[in-house]
Design a protein that fits this description.
heterotrimer, A mainly alpha (250), B mainly alpha (271), C alpha/beta (268), A: 250 residues, mainly alpha, MetI-like fold, 10 helices, 0% strand, globular, C: 268 residues, alpha/beta, Rossmann fold, 2 domains, six-stranded mixed β-sheet, four-stranded antiparallel β-sheet, 8 helices, 38% helix
């Protein structure tokens, strides 16, 4: 199947699902109270996007996402690179990380609340916490993936450590770095959402949980559609960027 | 002086953590609200063990059902999608795009649909665990060396024999790893769902005690969840090791049992 | 009566060659339409002969072999093995050894060799005895309990050969079995293969890229052209057997190689 044919089929599938979402509730096949027709949901979404409380919520969420990201990524990258560069440190850290990975981070959310109360710092701290570990792992893997041969060649030409980092590590790691950022953002956003849905008075996650509790279905679905689209768009944007940077790879 | 082995350093870190857990709050360095002393937590767990046990059983029940759904549907779908090239090329990119969406937000939908009882948690956790199982089964089937199938045909294997004696053994490594991850996600899914909106279960206990600022009991509940998650992970890895004994046959055991499939999986869960 | 029956059988055997291919051609669907892969192949391999097929990359030698083995359907033409048409794999009649040893990594060496017999539900002891015999034949006695990842490339191929021979098929097809091995191992394996062949008097059809290997091993070398592949030369190798490494340095050897090389160069 050629690429364009594939895209066509996907669009068709998407259209089919959208049509079902519209028709089934309207035709009564599905309870319209539980699943409002797509057009209602979209209309509500447009209305919501004009409301100031929604703007505020989105702003709060965006702020949390960005701040948490800016905290988690540098810290994680630093530790990850250290683990890859210093064998001793790496040997100690690596198995610990694997154990940490089999532990769900979300169960620690209440601890953050006990410590920091409910509010901006708590959500940011939790999100950063749930993101930092994947950054450590990816950064570590990224550094290790730099072909040993390239480094050897550079060293044989007398390159200093910082030169090696700039001219060998960074270019060959760029696609991996982008990938790390992309996945880190996924973890980050999920962390923020969980925190907002669990215990928060602000943010879009809180609004969604609220709408759900109050059976405000059109708003709830509007929120879900909004968040889903935003995450997917961001994700795909980074993906295309990654693809552009990886053209030199086999 | 030679450096201590990484293993001993890790042990030291572990022990230090336990010691600090006990000492720091008792010495007043950090408020007990934030971190109650270890002994208090364990005491509460022991004292109230009936409550925790009952809650754990509720959670266990939900996890079991959700896991059956996630793994069953995951393997079936994964096998089908993985073997049919057209489906694979069409659907897999869609799924990896969906991975970017935090599934938690769907939980509100499920509670609206199914109420706050076990059903909503089972559905939610089922969906959560479904994806890694499906993706890794599809990947496992896909990466079966075509040569194996050629050899199987050359020696006259029937279709049934090809499935049982070639496809299953060849893909089982990835499938098992996927089941491990899917199972872990199912546990998380149930627990998070219980924490968010629930009337029973361990997650519910966590939230209940948190709202009353009963830190020791919150910690105790978290410990129960941790033990559950770790126990499952160890069990899954043990099964993997047994089934995949041929992989490390003849090789010396390394320090930690990091299975070769850890890196071959789709990215781990953001929860 | 028995004498006459034997004669009849012998005559039948002599009458129908081990492998016969008539007017075989094949096309496959490329991106822009049908691509001819093989064009009008006629060949005939006598019993107990060691035939080698050489040709440039992509000329369709592997496809041809797969078709002879019944693993792929040709577009036109017929294939016979001992007088019977080959349309599906027949492991009792044709054993195949692939380029990549393709041993199942989850089975030990001996389990791999036993695999074809296990499919036929042969009883355990008989299977094991037969597999042991084969491992001994290929010089791997005692290595049966090892897993493929514990074996070297050469050893893996030997197991693969043992597996191909385990059902005692009269014909053995080999698709560049030594291609993934280093030169020294290749030479040793080639030598071993000739030893096994002389002990078991199978009919062998062997594909290779290496002209040296071809001349060293073969009774007859079939040279294929570039795509669409057809047989452009049949070179009889009249060197005495058993073959020795010293023969490789002789003039005769060199000329045979040169002839084959010339043919291939001309077509590409």
């Amino acid at each position: 199947m050629s690429r364009s044919y594939q895209t066509l089929v996907r669009i068709a599938l998407f259209a089919g699902l959208a049509a079902a979402w519209e028709l089934f509730p309207r035709a009564g096949i599905v309870d319209a109270m539980l699943l409002p027709p797509l057009s209602d949901v979209l209309a509500t979404l447009i209305k919501l996007l004009g409301q100031p409380n929604v703007h505020e919520a989105l702003a709060v969420t965006a702020a949390e996402v960005i701040v948490a990201f800016l905290i988690a990524v540098p810290i994680g990258a630093l530790i990850g690179v250290m683990a890859a560069e210093n064998e001793y440190f790496g040997e100690i850290i690596r198995p610990l990380l694997f154990y940490v990975f089999s532990i769900p981070k979300s169960i620690f959310l209440p601890l953050f609340i006990l410590a920091l109360g409910i509010g901006f710092p708590q959500k940011v701290a939790y999100a950063a916490f749930s993101t930092v570990f994947i950054v450590i792992m990816s950064a570590s893997a990224a550094v290790e993936s730099v072909k040993a041969e390239h480094t050897l060649v550079a060293r044989s030409y007398g390159a200093t450590r910082s030169q090696i980092v700039t001219w060998v590590y960074v270019p060959s790691m760029l696609p991996i770095l982008l990938e790390t950022l992309r996945i880190a953002m996924i973890f980050n956003f999920t962390g923020v959402m969980i925190a907002e849905m669990y215990a928060s008075r602000t943010g879009i996650g809180h609004l969604i949980a609220n709408w759900g509790e109050n059976f405000m279905m059109p708003q709830l679905f509007a929120g879900v559609v909004l968040l889903a689209s935003m995450s997917i768009l961001f994700n795909e944007a980074i993906r295309t960027l990654e693809a552009r940077c990886s053209t030199w790879r086999t | 002086m030679t450096r201590p082995s990484p293993r001993s350093v890790r042990w030291l870190i572990g022990i230090a953590q336990l010691v600090l857990w006990e000492a720091v709050p008792r010495l007043g360095l950090l408020p007990e609200l934030f971190i109650p002393p270890l002994t208090k937590v364990l005491g509460v767990l022991w004292y109230d063990h009936a409550i925790y046990w009952d809650a754990f059983l509720v959670t266990l029940y939900e996890v079991a059902i959700a896991m059956m759904i996630a793994c069953g549907a995951g393997i079936l779908t994964g096998a089908v999608v993985g073997s049919i090239a057209t489906l694979r090329d069409l659907l897999l990119p869609v799924f990896s795009s969906l991975y970017a969406v935090p599934i938690v937000i769907l939980y509100s939908v499920f509670t609206a649909w199914f109420g706050i009882g076990s059903e909503s948690k089972i559905v939610f956790a089922g969906v959560y665990g479904f994806f890694p199982v499906m993706l890794s089964t599809a990947a496992g089937i896909r990466t079966i060396d075509e040569q194996y199938m050629l050899v199987a045909r050359a020696v006259g294997a029937t279709i049934g024999q090809r499935i049982t004696r070639v496809i299953i053994p060849a893909s089982i490594a990835t499938v098992l790893a996927g089941l491990r991850l899917g199972g872990a996600l199912t546990i998380i899914g149930v627990v998070v769902a219980e924490m968010l909106v629930s009337a029973a279960g361990i997650g519910y206990l966590v939230t209940k005690y948190r709202t009353t600022l009963d830190s020791p009991r919150v910690f105790a509940a978290i410990i129960v969840i941790l033990l559950f998650a770790v126990a499952f992970d160890q069990l899954a890895r043990m099964i993997e090791r047994r089934v995949l004994g041929w992989r490390s046959a003849g090789r010396a055991e390394r320090g930690t049992t990091v299975s070769a499939t850890d890196t071959a999986l789709p990215a781990p869960a953001p929860v | 009566m028995q004498h006459v029956a034997n004669l009849t059988v012998a005559r039948e055997q002599v009458a129908s060659p081990a492998i016969e291919v008539r007017s075989l051609s094949h096309v496959y669907q490329g991106r822009d339409g049908a691509v001819p892969a093989l064009a009008g192949i006629d060949l005939s391999v006598g019993h107990g002969r060691f035939t080698v097929i050489v040709g440039p990359s992509g000329c369709g030698k592997t496809s041809l072999l797969l078709m002879i083995a019944g693993l792929r359907r040709q577009a036109a033409g017929e294939i016979f093995c001992e007088g019977r048409p080959m349309t599906v794999p027949d492991p009792a009649r044709i054993g195949v050894v692939f380029q990549e040893a393709s041993l199942f990594p989850w089975l030990t060496a001996i389990d791999n060799v036993e695999f074809p017999l296990a499919l036929k539900h042969m009883p355990r002891e008989d299977r094991r005895a037969r597999a042991d015999e084969m491992l001994k034949l290929v010089g791997l006695e005692g290595f049966g309990g090892r897993y493929p990842h514990e074996l070297s490339g050469g050893m893996k191929q030997r197991v693969s050969i043992a597996r191909g021979l385990v059902q005692d098929p009269p014909v053995l097809l080999m698709d560049e079995p030594f291609a993934a091995l280093d030169e020294q191992t290749r030479m040793t394996m080639g030598h071993e293969l000739l030893k096994i062949w002389s002990e078991t008097s199978k009919t062998v059809v062997f594909i290779t890229h290496s002209l040296t290997e071809a001349v060293y091993l073969a009774d007859e070398v079939l040279v294929m052209s570039a795509r669409p592949g057809r047989i452009i030369d049949r070179v009889a190798i009249e060197l005495p057997r058993p073959r020795t490494y010293e023969m490789m340095a002789t003039d005769v050897f060199g000329r045979l190689r040169e002839r084959i090389w010339h043919q291939i160069r001309v077509t590409t």
